[in-house]
Amino acid sequence: MTEKALIVTHKIPDADALASALAVKKIIGKADILVPESLNKMARSMLDGEKVLTEWPEEEYKLIVCVDFSSPEMCPGILERKEKKIVIDHHPPDREFLKELDGYLIDPGAGSTTELVWRIMKELGVEPGEKLRRVMMAGIYYDTVSLRVARKESLLALAELMPEDNKNIAEEISMMGVEPDESEKIARLKACQRARIERENGVIIASAAVSAFEGQTAAALTQVGADVSFVGSKKNKRISARARPWITAKGFDLVEHVLEPVAEKHGCTAGGHKGAAAMQGVPPEKFKEVLLECVENAKKWAKRL
Ligand SMILES: [Mn+2]
After folding, report:
1. Helices 182-194 and 214-224 sit at what angle, rounded to 10 degrees?
2. How many other C-beta atoms are found inside a 10 Å radius of the C-beta of residue 7?
3. What percent of the chain has pLDDT over 90?
4. Residue ranges of domains in the chain, CATH in brackets
5. Residue 171 has pLDDT above 90, yes or no
6. Could you tell me where the DSSP H helices lie in 206-259?
7. How far is the centre of ligand 1, averaged over its atoms, from the C-alpha of 262 (Å)?
């Protein structure tokens, strides 16, 4: 058994997951990072040469630290590991997974996992250094949708992390060189081109199927005008959903009102936040049907507005 800890992100890690992993490594020191499955361009630029594993190692680690996920579907292989596990996350947790854990810091009210790790760093007096500060800023920035859904806690953490170099937030973030892959940009544009657009009681609902980047493309659809969007990838067995803030401010919750009832019916799992959520494990043969049911549920809710 190695003396090291293994820090694990969810698959297809976002900036928050990567920043959290790097920050936890800074705290622990003796640790490897595992990014399950593969690295995209954004991940490579955030990691900036930092070596990470993309497959589960054979050897046993002293501890596994899961960052930015608390449901095992987000990280295939995690349940097979025998090591002690702790979780740092800001998603509503999977109750069954909690029973497997030896400890956790889960705050679904937090805007990002990065700010939870920053809380720990401050507590322990760990100085991240300028490079990691910028990485952590990016983690908070992207998980709060470029600060649009940032609450006070996220902004305070961001301000504390900001280097004293007189640059503004957009300049700091651009220094990370985080630009989406061309394939992601194309997927976003294609989703806009192919979207099925429906209107119900003043709510515009857009849905589309793509081969990948369903989360980013669902976000793109709400950016260009949809109030609620659903984008699914049959291959990834996932449907991602987004809702604009005006509609969540009226009490709409994507997980509770749309995804959970559909997921339950078809034996999938749903998770996320009221304005940004996803359904995993969608059976490919039912893909179209499930996507349609999501749209129908959103319409039902819109009718009651
Ligand atoms: Mn996150």
Report:
1. 50
2. 27
3. 85
4. 5-174 (3.90.1640.10), 182-303 (3.10.310.20)
5. no
6. 214-224, 245-248
7. 24
Q: How far apart are the first and last CA of the chain?
A: 57
Amino acid present at 230: F
Strand stretches in the chain, DSSP E: 5-8, 31-34, 63-67, 85-89, 103-106, 196-200, 203-209, 228-233, 238-243, 269-272, 276-280
The mean pLDDT value for 223-229 works out to 97
Ligand 1 center–CA 46 separation, angstroms: 15
The pLDDT of 77-104, averaged and rounded, is 96
Q: How far is the CA of 136 from the centre of ligand 1 (A)?
A: 12
Distance, CA of 188 to CA of 242 (rounded, Å): 14
Distance in Å, CA 66 to ligand 1 centroid: 12
Residue 265 CA to ligand 1 centre (angstroms)? 27
How would you classify the pairing of strands 228-233 and 276-280? unpaired
Find the 108 Cα to ligand 1 centroid distance in Å.
10
| CA of 16 relative to ligand 1 center, distance in Å | 5
253 token code pair: 């919750």
**Ligand 1: distance of its center to the CA of 68 in Å?**
5
Structure tokens at 101: 């854990």
Question: What is the per-residue burial (b if ≥16 Cβ within 10 Å, else e) of 81-117?
Answer: beeebbbbbbbebbeebeeebeebebbeebbbbbbbb
Query: Residue holding tokens 């470029």?
Result: 146
132 residue type, one letter: L
- Model pLDDT, residue 40: 76
Could you report the per-residue pLDDT of 7-55, keeping only the tens digit for each? 999 998 999 999 999 999 999 999 999 999 878 777 888 898 999 999 9
Q: Please name the residues in contact with 26: beta carbons below 8 A apart, sequence gap of 6 or more.
A: 121, 126, 128, 129, 132
Question: In one letter, which amino acid is 256?
Answer: E
Distance 13 CA to ligand 1 centre (A): 9
Residue 170 pLDDT: 86
